[in-house]
Amino acid sequence: MNLFRLVMIIATAGTLSGAWWLSVNGVGGESSDLDRSLRTGSGGNTFSNSSVK
Question: Where in this protein does the record put region Disordered (predicted)?
Answer without folding.
Answer: 29-53
